[in-house]
Amino acid sequence: MVYIESWDEFVDKSVQLFRANPQSSRYVMKYRHCDGKLVLKVTDNRECLKYKTDQAQEIKRMEKLNNIFFTLMTRGPDVDITEASMKEQAESQQTKKGRGRRQ
Questions:
Q1: Contact residues for 31 (Cβ-Cβ < 8 A; gap 6+)
Q2: Rounded to whole angstroms, how far apart are CA atoms 90 and 60?
Q3: Buried-exposed string 53-81: b where 16+ CB fall within 10 A, e elsewhere
Q4: How far apart are CA 54 and CA 77, in angstroms?
Q5: What is the pLDDT of residues 37-91, one digit of tens each?
Q6: How many other CB atoms are found less than 10 A from the CB of residue 25?
Q7: Is residue 52 within 8 Å of residue 69, measured between CB atoms?
Q8: Which strand (E) or helix (H) includes residue 2?
Q9: Considering the entire predicted model, what is its pTM?
């Protein structure tokens, strides 16, 4: 089990791993509050991918990865995941409306 340093590489490899064997793949998140570390792990019992961070801004990235996996698990491994990313961006733009001073 080697930690992958690059976030983009971790996401790409983990999606490929899930698509190759969706029935036995697992996605696990582990957070240790005392250390302030988040560890993400994707495995299919043969290959294990891990990513570790202690940066708070990485939480948004983790949420995007969760949405990708939710899409793959509910719609099937052959679905286009760019739809999930575009839908998420549209929702974030709608929530920004209404912030600030009233006029």
A1: 37, 38, 39
A2: 15
A3: beeeeeeebbeebeebbebbeeeeeeeeb
A4: 30
A5: 999 999 999 999 999 998 888 888 889 999 998 888 888 888 887 766 665 555 6
A6: 20
A7: no
A8: strand 2-3
A9: 0.75
